[in-house]
Design goal:
single chain; 230 residues; 12 helices; 57% helix
Length: 230
């Protein structure tokens, strides 16, 4: 869901768009992805030398346009541009069809970028089929809780900052990830499973058993000595 929102509103988000393309929904293969990347590089517009402003121009708007001409080039390849205009490369029939479908979805989301973030999150969940899929997995209870938590976070953000829009919401999510903050909800616990996490995240959970790989008597000191010798 977050990858869809990011790819729809940020043409430079090649990593998030790639995540969608190779994911289980669109299933774009390596060959077609490479062709799309080549098309993205083909569409890059290189900077041009800006024209010197005419100090005698009477219209300040014309002077400003003249002074800034060519100063804001798009000099990075964008998979999103290639997705919207894939060209005539020998893609597979399935890939070309999926490119068109994904381009249409992202275009619709981009046109609704002014809507509240919680509405766009709900639309992404519906478009991707995640609302149905999360109910059909072996861990359905937990997966549904995670989807509901994302909606809650988006709703809380909109209530706190209604003017920030989807870009503000995505920025808040990035900051929360960097700070390792988790949504304020408790997902159903799974039985017979092992949770893998950093020590920072694990502290305070009061688990019955905690295993730290490599943490045994003398192990840490020996590793430090080895690194010092190296």
């Amino acid at each position: 869901v977050l990858a869809m929102l990011t790819a729809a509103t940020d043409p430079s988000a090649n990593d998030q768009l790639t995540r969608l393309l190779v994911g289980p929904r669109w299933r774009i293969g390596v060959r077609d992805l490479a062709l799309l990347g080549a098309r993205a590089r083909e569409l890059v517009r290189f900077p041009q030398e800006p024209a010197a402003p005419d100090p005698g121009a009477a219209d300040w708007r014309a002077t400003l346009r003249q002074a800034t001409a060519g100063s804001d080039p798009v000099d990075a390849a964008s998979l999103r541009d290639a997705l919207d205009d894939p060209g005539e490369a020998p893609y597979s029939v399935a890939a070309r069809s999926r490119f068109a479908a994904l381009s249409g979805e992202l275009g619709d989301l981009a046109r609704q970028a002014g809507d509240p973030a919680v509405d766009l999150v709900a639309r992404c969940i519906w478009l991707s089929g995640l609302d149905v899929e999360s109910r059909l997995t072996p861990t359905a209870e937990r997966d549904c809780a995670a989807v509901d938590a994302l909606l809650d976070v988006a709703g809380q953000h909109h209530a706190a900052e209604p003017e920030s829009g989807v870009q503000g919401f995505l920025r808040a999510v990035r900051l929360a990830r960097q700070a390792e903050r988790q949504p304020d909800f408790r997902a159903p616990e799974l039985t017979g499973c092992v949770r893998v996490m950093t020590v920072h995240k694990a502290k305070g959970l009061e688990a019955d058993v905690v295993l730290v790989p490599g943490m045994h008597a003398g192990g840490f000191r020996a590793r430090v000595d080895d690194e010092s010798d190296a």
